[in-house]
């Protein structure tokens, strides 16, 4: 076995920076409260969507390979179901989920995002960071034009308010 | 929360059958030997590619979220590196890997396959099954035309011979 093999033909994906959208926020609540807002379906439905959208149903099987099923309702009354899976679960610290699979390990119709959440202690509260990774730079751009920053910004305000209250 | 929500607009992916290629074989060797051929890089390089292709390098970090890096060399001397990740690891029983991520959790350029391997006791040996799942029916067809059945057939012969010898 030759250890000095050339790496010819390596498919290099565009840099992560070109495929990432992110939001980071200090939340004046303990990590456990912020994590719980993501993992308890009764809490998630309260903050997950910016109005006039509603989250009307959530099933969250929070373990590696576990599925989630979240139904959002638009102002026109049309329900949009979303299915995904948890890839990594470290309680109160880290949560990774994706829509690339609908359950372990059935590929979805279109892998669009992988969400990497971290919950860190900071100034008596929590540094909450959501990195949203896409497979292509085009998908990142689409997501940004769909209103990522405003939508996730409002949702994160709602998440913070709930965590501080809970 | 209304539990009788309609599931309007659900994106239904094509059935798994349309997106799956599979191979199943009885191997006259214990499960542990067959599993080891997939997880020990010194063994994997011996069986992984049908001639005249060679597997010239393998790094396998076999744990959920761990990466693999496998370099194949064509008869023209050109090296083709492949990067992937393990999604599920149950020693001697089950192994799930994909090229949708190059490491935890960086999306690859093009998610193409998820490989679900099972190793079961059967007639004093092992029932070895590899299900290869694709995101689209078109990718499954491409993979089949690339020679999936012949290629995986020969590789599986080599895997079986190695497991029986080891």
TrEMBL record, chains A, B:
Describe the location of the Activator of Hsp90 ATPase homologue 1/2-like C-terminal domain by residue ranges: 29-162
InterPro entries per record? ASHA1/2-like_C, START-like_dom_sf
Give the protein family. Belongs to the AHA1 family.
What is the protein's given name? SRPBCC family protein
Native organism: Luteolibacter yonseiensis
